[in-house]
Fold Haloacid dehalogenase-like hydrolase.
Amino acid sequence: MTSAPASAPEPRTDGVAPVPVVGFDLDMTLVDSSDGIATTLRAVLGEVGVTITAADTWPYAGMPLDLILAGLAPGTPAEEIEALQARYRHLYPSLGISSVRPYTGAAAALAAPAAHGGRSVVVSAKHTPNVHRVLAVAGLAGAVDDADVAGDLFAEEKGVRLAELGATAYVGDHPGDVRAAAVAGAVAVAVTTGSHDTAALLEAGADVVLSSLTDFPEWLATHVEDLRTGAAGPNGERTAPLPG
């Protein structure tokens, strides 16, 4: 576990500690969806004469689809990007879903907040219908209420939705997820299962970096204690140093 320094705590004065509401990103955080995404991107771009490899798609993991397509096919006009997005979303259920696998610890991580009286929510850049499909195929849908699942959001837009859901922490693999947590006033918990390493995630402002979700339940216990003792702010943001 790696953490960034933080300021000294200010104790709560209302006597009521919030329960943990933990937001999770989807792709490369809860599930390894890289093969299916690469397969679908290769098919879509191949139809318009752009040849890419799976390795070409990896640096774009966690980004919105329009930015991925624009990066892989530079110079493509905006209206063509829109058409490629539509084609991708049409093909993804048949080409991309079957290879999705939950990461070790994903189910336990999603279940962990409920053990402390809280809940988990999922906020993703993925197209919302495909978020639901991926959760179902990965065997994770039962851990999150449908109303607590949101897609088609990235970075600061995620943060707005996380704030609406009352998130006290947000777990993701991308610097954009760290920015989302900041907007929501939530603890930014990063995992290195995506294309960004510990140094990059800490530089982006992550409060804590985990090597995998298997470490999450242990970290959550410290978060819950922070909420109870006032070492976290009213929305869950960390105000005391995290253990190294």
